Amino acid sequence: MRLNTLVIALLIAMPMAAAKKSKTEAPIRVACVGNSVTYGYGLRNRDRDAYPVRLQEMLDEHYGSGRFVVGNFGRSGATLLYKGHRPYIQQPEFHQALEFKPDWVVIHLGLNDTDPRDWPDWKEGFIPDYRALIDSFRVVNPEARIAICLMTPIFDRHARFQSGTRDWHAQIQDAIRKVATGANVQIIDLYTPLHSRPDLFPDALHPNPEGAKILATTVYGALTGDYGGLKLPVLYSNGMVLPRNEHLLVEGRANARQHVQAVLSKDGKVVKESGAFTRADGSWSVELDHMQAGGPYTLTLTSKPLPPSDYQLYYPKHYPYDLLALKPKNKKASQIETLTIDSIWFGDVWLASGQSNMELRVDQCNTLDQDLADARRLSQRIHLYNMPARARTDAVEWPDSVLRFTNALQHMDFQGWTAATPEAVARFSAVAFNFARVLADSLEDVPIGIICNAVGGSTTESWVDRSTLEWELPNILSDWRNGDYGQPWARGRMTQNIALALDKESASYNTLQRHPYDPAYLFEAAVAPLEHYPIKGVLWYQGESNAHNIELHERLFTLLEQSWRDFFARRWHCEFQKKPSLPFYVVQLSSLPRPSWPAFRNSQRRLAEKLPDTWMAVSSDVGDAADVHYRTKRPVGERLALQALCHTYGKTIESEGPTLSSAVNGQNHTVALRFEHADGLTCSRGFEIAGHDGLFYPATIKIEGNKIILSSPSVDYPAYVRYGWQGFTDADLRNAAGLPASTFMTKVPFYEEQE
Question: Which domains does the chain have, with CATH numbers?
Fold first, then answer.
């Protein structure tokens, strides 16, 4: 590997590294090399809060004072590029870092290379320049352990975010990964732990003290391999449901250089065993292949350190340090740990999400007695995981405690798995429970798990991940509360909830306070914690808070499906496995006298027809003209279940209401509509027709098999037809299965178009 000429000259002028020191006689010297983020720019007390200072504290706490010496060699504005506007190798901190003769080096550079003075012209030098920088530390200490960092985020509020910084930041991250591979050094991800916390970056670039602490925690774990021991995602708990009949990976975290053993047993007898080694970031996954439906099972997970003789066999030199050799004060790193999960069932798991009509509980609905009777009958076959919000978005000002846990992405209450007892069902989503009820009755001996994380009033944009919005719709992230993207009601409610938010350092209003309606917030707080949990599909009931802007919602919902499919597909690790498309079953908005709702329902219908693996359940016939939270939710859950049974489970059943297939001009100034799913059509009202002037009049209805003939004395030549086109509609087109038709509008072709 060639060294940059300037670096060679600098190194020749320096004394060579001292003889190899004994790790038992001298402290391990850790050099934190970087730019302003490493330096601690923007921190009022950088000598206390900069991440290298915090890293020193953590190492002292866990391994004893004197075992490590951490040096901060950050330089504000420094570039990695040697031809950049402020090359790090020309700064005094670079010389000081070399003179420090570090044993471990942590390099975090690249953020300033996103400057238009640097990356566009000099990007070809980034990889060779980074390799030369790494080699410079290897010259002064051939035994040095090097770690390079994926950069911390730059958020959308940055002035140059859309003019190039976003794109160049991503390109530099990719270059850093290539450097790590080529130079055989450890890579530390500083991006992922902070990308969901824009509230910790006052200027969109530099973290505040809490953000610096997260940086230090991330670097500490990567250097030492100490990730706090054996852990499982929050949904992996007693009573859980895992998918049947598929390749299954159970995932978790543990300390580095550990062997994790999984033993699945039933009635005290071992059914399956599987093992894995933890990766450098502490992650691990074990296989539990193709279990048939049933249970209960017990899963026992054991983590223990690998014998030292196995270290070189399984781990490269630059992987996290030998915890046993460091002899931490906390002996947990060298102990065997065990976690046990009881009452595991193998079946199908569904995720129910959205806003208040999905959130509405069984005990708030008019079929309470019937639903609770079903719960008693099916309590051992349906398993619930409720994730209600810890604070409701009612018309109140939130106290400081709520504001703080909301910022920390702790807005959801993870209540754990429970059997569908009447007590649990009463507090659970009525739509979700009735969906699960129909599945449990229809699928013999298949346990059904249902997770509900709906949040009242939530917006579509709040459920889309940040990266997707940054690349596909970045403007929605910019000052959402004062812009035109969010519905005025939602923006007003958010403003009321966070009115008491204060920045502790400045004692002024905190403009970065988070709220569940914010773009990306609920993905980060309510979806990301599911950590790719193996769900069968999604039930979605949302849109009331986005009905003000149909065109925007069409973009957002398309992005939401893309976002969730990408997220949940990440559990399919094997290249040879087909990654099934995650199905979405959507509830169309119901009836309410709001002007935009007919067109919004029609838009939902068109989305369901256009988007892959997306189907819709109609609810307009059960709405309440005086209440957006109508109480008849049982048939809505049943209709979603019919769609799932048909399209996911392949049952030959009727799952759709009448669906328009064609419209043609008929005789005597009529229009003839032909329908699918049309056995036993009935209809007495709800249709309107218009001529080319666009003025609609109620239509006379005549049913002929799967056709409906419409006419009006006020329309000589029908050109348009619409159905159910009122906010609150009493339109009653149904088929023999009792399933209602969707609101729709269509244009009637001219005679020559028909020919």
Answer: 5-224 (3.40.50.1110), 241-344 (2.60.40), 347-536+544-578 (no CATH), 659-754 (2.60.40)
